[in-house]
Design a protein that fits this description.
homotrimer; alpha+beta; Rieske Iron-sulfur Protein; Naphthalene 1,2-dioxygenase Alpha Subunit, Chain A, domain 1; seven-stranded antiparallel β-sheet; four-stranded antiparallel β-sheet; 6 helices; elongated
Chain lengths: 355, 355, 355
């Protein structure tokens, strides 16, 4: 029982990670080797030589061709074997699978499913990551848990109070009311906490921008886009200046951009960035925020890995949802819908490309 | 095929190990979190939050309540959830299992089976451990073997000759005759070796008490109490002074107290103490004896872990018993009897406590 | 589905490795303990005491008898228990299995199958290893791969170009024609590359012997002897001096001797030596060649272990052979023939020796 849809774009790496060099990564249980072609586009091939399964990522790149590091078979970037040692005629079946790949929003995206369905319009919206009105940076976290545990974690920020008590945690968050809505591919959790003392982090940002402290209205708007992207619109504005009604000019605003890529059922790569719409050119602030978020996310990963182990030990456990789970419940329903669609379509995902 | 009865008291820790802090331990394949309540009694709960199975031992204790470290659900020490974040009404099914627990003979005891059967009178007799007529101390050993291999090891002291040749080993022990008797819940192996030169350890103890050396009568009386407690009455007295007939006044006497608690089928916690009835207030002797025994037991653990690995590789091997196995053979029969009783009783052990 | 025949001689160790001391080794999934008897012959016993399976290799040797390190059972070198503690009568079934063993060509050989078939004439021919006309030395490599992957690697030297590019690799090798022949128990791949510039290694050897460089004829004659021995006759002679016709006097000649012993399905011990027929008494050359070959073989082991992992992940993959696989294809066929013979013979290999 696979927990992730295959017919979707998944972030494979940060844009800058993929150069003209062989880069191995497993996505949705499929081992791939990626590289940037000489024309700047991305190639993604199955990471196993047709002949004896030796990982192509352990060979070498010659132009846009991959030479196997064991017996020297050569593949072009479309996955076709174009040279065999001591041999004139090449078996036309000698191919490795390739995967649709493209660059957008500072990430490299891969489509591990049916290539015929790989519509570039379906790449999740993370435009803030390269929008000049926003500035920020992020990292990649390797997490030893099913990718949905990361989604659950992000869809309910109540946990900030208990997991992140020393930084962004706030008793008021755990008790503030919230609203959950959903569409066909998206689910949104909206929480406004009005007229409160800001927690230390946000108080610092307000002082930085406005040079003063004060009561604030705080918002967290979590938006899930199936199967595994979550943006969180976060910020505070001075209380009573109209932020809940749409005027955020007296506040500071950030977006936490998150997209999670299953590696296996029990591991994932979690790509995130934190961007802001103030002090755009202050590079030291970018670094400070990135490292601050990274420390906080480290607390989450420890929790999620413990949860993964506990859940693996109790495969038959029946889970019950409580109020705070409404966001993650909708996220999981939308994922299940994608899985159901994939199952009922007659599409057979090709394991091996034909010549 | 479980190898340990559940309806029994098992030592969970030394008394002093359990304070007003969360202490995780797995007993008979069940993960528990223990703590001392503010009134000094022991609470033992299932170590998995009802909501998402996150280990409660990773949360925090507030008074006698446990706060989950992920979403902040709060449990009282009877296992009932008494608070959920962002929620007024609490699902009455939101409970975790609790385990009967008590303190006796300097150990904390847990009953992993049916709570209705947890009769305090069934705690194994290890009274020497707090009897003012005896003095001594012990340790906890984590052993990577099935708990019955530790029992086998203790029920036959022939192995002293081969495993502990450099300390208490004695060629005469391996060849001395012994007698095995048994009751309903106990089995006893008695060995008297009369008129011998004492081995270095006992010679030292005799000199300490009487200031002189001499031929001795040596005894080893091993008593098993199902399912996993063994006391060994050991000592020497000057030869011909009547020890075999009951007068031990011209000798020194110790008790090795052992109780072994299955963690899983392949691991256990082994709690032991060595107590003596002479030089009661000499604390340096207590330390010397405890560390001496600890070194010797380390030799056993290496043997048992190698045996566990060898046995796991040959699951279908048929074992034959030889003379020296009569004690361990009876111990295993009494354990099997308990397992059989547990199976034939209609008792269903509750996995989850009802509210 | 076992991949190795049991009715065959396998190298267990270098001759010098086995002294009058207990030496454990697993051969074809069978744990053995070996030692040299006081008369210099080799004993090989099952490495598990009849009584409780404790590894005999953890006990001690007394003369030609093995004393179990747990309860002190004593076995003679024919595997019969000749002493039990606290016991007069010994169960005649108390035996451990023994394995035929002999020393030849500087190796200790073990026959893990039916002892009745252990014909010393079937030891693979590696006479160069002690022939005074040849000089050299070798090592033992533990490889985490099925033994046949090492055979595949040796049967096709095309891979030198890609795996060993910095030392013996030679683009001409990958493209030179070769011929494959086979017999009942052997397969041979012969490659002559005439009139070429010698690669650095061979150029150095020619200068050493003849004091000059020049174009050469190069040969590689790979001979497989089932189930797992490969000798490689390698060398170069000055071009046009008649080497292909049989006159090697104007060249240098080496033999790479290889024999691989399955430990388990996924691991093996690989014994090899490199011997030469020139500068026989130059001990520093022996060392230099042995260490040089060892560095090159280290590159192979890294490749083979990666291949093993990749193949284990794709158990249903269908492999296709290309031209360069003809040698390994024949080697595998001859192994399969041995396995088939073993299966169809009614021989039951005794797991436990009878008294």
């Amino acid at each position: 029982m696979r927990s992730f849809p295959l017919n979707a774009w998944y972030a494979a790496a940060w844009d800058a990670d993929i150069t003209h060099a062989l880069f191995p990564r497993t996505i949705c249980d499929q081992k791939m080797v990626m590289f940037r072609r000489t024309d700047g586009t991305i190639a993604a091939l199955e990471d196993a030589c047709w002949h004896r399964l030796y990982p192509l990522s352990r060979g070498r790149l010659e132009g846009d061709e991959v030479v196997c590091g064991y017996h020297g078979l050569v593949y072009n970037s479309q996955g076709h074997c174009i040279h065999m040692p001591s041999q004139e005629t090449i078996n036309p079946a000698a191919c490795v699978r390739t995967f649709p790949a493209l660059v957008r929003h500072r990430f490299v995206w891969i489509w591990p499913g049916d290539p015929a369905l790989a519509d570039p319009d379906k790449v999740p919206d993370l435009h803030w990551n390269h929008d000049p009105a926003w500035a920020g940076d992020g990292k990649t976290i390797f997490a030893r848990c099913n990718y949905r545990l990361v989604l659950d974690n992000l869809m309910d920020l109540t946990h900030e109070t208990f997991v992140h008590g020393s930084s962004i945690g706030h008793r008021e968050v755990a008790e503030a009311p919230f609203e959950t809505t959903h569409g066909n591919r998206t689910a949104t959790v909206t929480r406004w906490i009005e007229g409160i003392h800001p927690p230390p982090f946000w108080d610092g940002q307000m002082k930085r921008k406005f040079g003063k402290s004060g009561l604030v209205d705080r918002w967290q708007i979590i938006r899930f886009e199936a199967p595994s992207t979550i943006t969180i619109d976060v910020g505070v504005a001075f209380a009573g200046t109209g932020a809940p009604q749409g005027d955020r000019s007296q506040g500071v605003n950030g977006f936490v951009l998150n997209t999670i890529t299953p590696e296996t059922e029990g591991t994932c790569h979690y790509f995130w960035a934190f961007v802001r719409n103030y002090h755009l050119t202050e590079q030291s602030l970018t670094t400070e925020l990135r490292e601050g978020v990274f420390r906080i996310f480290g607390e989450d990963e420890a929790v999620l890995e413990a949860q993964q182990i506990a859940m693996a030990e109790r495969p038959d456990y029946t889970f019950y949802n409580i109020n705070i789970d409404s966001g993650s419940m909708w996220a999981r329903r939308l994922i299940d819908k994608m899985l159901q669609e994939e199952k009922s379509s007659a599409t057979v995902i090709p394991i091996r490309q034909t010549a």
